Amino acid sequence: MRTQNPVFIPGPTNMPDRLRHAMDTQTVDHRAPDFARRFLPLLEDLKTVFGTQLGEVLLFPATGTGGWETAVTNTLSPGDEVLAARHGMFSQRWIDLCRRQGLYVHAVEGQWGEGVPVDEYARILAADSDHRIKAVLACHNETATGVTSDIAAVRAALDKADHPALLFVDGVSSIASMDFRMDEWGVDVAVTGSQKGFMLGAGLAILAFSPRAIAACRDARCPRAYFDVEAMREANRAGSFPYTPPVGLINGLAESVSLLLDEGLPRVFSRHHRIAEGVRRAVDAWGLSLCARRPALYSDTVTAIRVPRGFDSNALVHHAYEHYGVSFGAGLGEVAGKVFRIGHLGDMTDVMALSGLATAEMAMVNLGYPVELGSGVAAAQRYYSATRNRWKREVA
Ligand SMILES: *Cc1c(COP(=O)(O)O)cnc(C)c1O
Question: Where does the record place the Aminotransferase class V domain (predicted)?
Fold first, then answer.
């Protein structure tokens, strides 16, 4: 018997049984050769997921936030200037983290519901003729607002200004679910975590560093100890870790990557797109609108939905959990109480998505929203049934 309904939060995501089993392991001697035999190919395979051949993948026992700290402290020095935008909770947290590290942040105030303000970035970079800005930060998928930004356009802004700043991308809720092209987009550090697209529990920060980012580690003076990239790379070269690795999670990640590569990344991405599109059709049928302002910004991993005036989205999220045992994402920061979020990334099927939509409808109707039972579900059903693929059962 299942004791839990699927979750519809944008992380941690639903965990396939195959991954849970892979993590259930007896004590492993991480200095024995079989650890290296499993671990080193994993680092190679992860490059495919990041879309990099030039970069190097690094794993730290941490979450995405620890991944950001790793990116910043290993490549920059106190007082360095960085360019960032605040257009959601996650981009805001990255700005805070940089300031606490003693960096000077040019924080562009963006709209919650808009993407990275590329034109503003282009203007600031072009004006920075002394190249005081050492790094540019971009959140690929702002999980708080359900907005995906155009990273290729950020790269183009850097190139157009002939600016040498490093490009750091938060891909925590996009990598492994949406197309990510580290080399093509000229990303210098890409950051993600184990609990979103990789369908595991929290506990691993997963990063890729470009050769330029690795070179920057030599002169960077921000203090780092636990998150020291050079110490990690040196240990990794010998197939080991500078400290005790979380072997269960690493086994889970190896299984996750093989699940993703077996499905095929293009198929993983198109599955996310289809599921997201069905959810968007449902939202439209409810007569509600998205937090994301334009279709070009719509996220394929999380949908943030504005509730009608006079309603509290947090009460809706609470009601769905209390009455139906289903978790949706609450509104965060500036959109707290105003939006609720449906996470649809990772281990997700049409059928699971429909159950989430049906639950959201029941909760809204219970709370007096002007929404008709079945309206959103029917819109999603029409879309899913018209675009269906042959069902392929995953062998556990
Ligand atoms: C979840 C998330 C994070 C934070 O990651 P933690 O693993 O909770 O530290 C950062 N950025 C984005 C875009 C996220 O979705």
Answer: 42-329
